[in-house]
Design brief:
mainly alpha, single chain, globular
Length: 309
């Protein structure tokens, strides 16, 4: 049975629990919508159209906010479990040496290092698990694309897996977007701590002021779109290594974020430097997400050994 595109979107919405609007985190609602929408809009045309058509863009924008809707004390267990997936404090994560690809290997590595540094909180919920969440959702997306290929080959209905693929893409986009915001990669996430010779703010306001209030007031999708379109889509040789490089570049901009804040770059209408910085960071998130989705699509054609139980 063929399902129309309008019905597909209704079904996608029905997959999402109805809930009241909650305070946003990450880039705030506007930033995440910009990143997800532009990533899908700039996918190459060999990606199936259902991931990049008009309804996909709307679904990507809406569903990209899901992980922040889960952050509520009314669902405190859910908030506690998934909060570390939004950030990675690289100063502490790097104390284990090379970051392993598997989540539980990293957790074991943290436990080993903790005994040598008893005064530093080196637990997963304090250090963050962001790159592992990205890798795991990327792999879900690749599986979804593989199933889509198999259903096409068998001439079977693809509409249910299309819903899953759009959801995985949007879900992935939230965390990739978080990874483009410098204060999601550092212990200096919301006010400078420790030695502060340059006199950066120590008040706990910079995080939301930059990523939410400033972006919402001053940045539009049309401002960011040319920056994304100007960068050619890249097939990632190794998505884990590429994502870590992406995170480390973001991390290199932590002090710049504080410098711009000190110059009132994020106050009110801000400054041209502040606006350009926000636009570049949003574009970086959209570009990385686009490349991850495209790579998942291409890699889904690779042969695999099926799980047999």
């Amino acid at each position: 049975m063929k399902i129309g595109s309008g019905a597909r979107f209704v079904m996608a919405a029905a997959m999402v629990p109805l809930m009241t609007v909650q305070p946003s985190f990450g880039w705030g609602s506007d930033g995440h919508k910009i990143i997800n929408r532009l990533a899908a809009a700039n996918l190459p045309h060999d990606v199936p159209v259902f991931v990049r058509d008009g309804e996909a863009l709307s679904a990507m924008a809406y569903l990209g906010l899901e992980p922040d809707r889960w952050r509520n004390q009314a669902e405190s267990e859910l908030e506690s479990e998934q909060a570390p997936d939004h950030f990675i404090d690289l100063e502490r994560a790097d104390m284990v040496g090379t970051l392993p690809r598997r989540r539980y290997d990293f957790i074991r590595d943290l436990a080993k290092v903790q005994s040598a540094h008893p005064t530093i909180p080196l637990t997963p919920e304090k250090v963050g698990m962001q790159p592992w969440q990205v890798e795991e959702i990327y792999q879900r997306l690749k599986v979804g694309f593989r199933e889509y290929r198999e259903l096409i080959a068998a001439n079977e209905d693809t509409k249910p897996v299309e819903l899953a693929i759009v959801y995985y893409s949007a879900w992935l986009g939230h965390y990739v977007g978080d990874g483009s915001m410098p204060l999601h990669t550092t212990i200096q996430y919301n006010g400078w701590t420790g030695p502060n010779p340059n006199g950066y703010t120590t008040e706990r306001h910079i995080h939301s002021k930059f990523e939410s209030a400033f972006v919402s007031a001053n940045v539009r999708v049309s401002d960011v779109a040319p920056l994304v379109a100007a960068v050619r889509t890249k097939v990632l040789t190794d998505e884990w290594d590429d994502y870590l490089m992406y995170l480390r570049h973001t991390h290199s901009l932590v002090e710049k974020t504080y410098q711009i804040d000190k110059a009132a770059g994020f106050d009110g209408a801000g400054t041209p430097v502040g606006k350009a910085f926000a636009e570049e960071r949003l574009a970086a998130g959209a570009i990385e997400l686009r490349d991850l989705i495209y790579t998942a699509w291409l890699r889904s054609a690779d042969p695999v050994q099926e799980f047999r139980g």
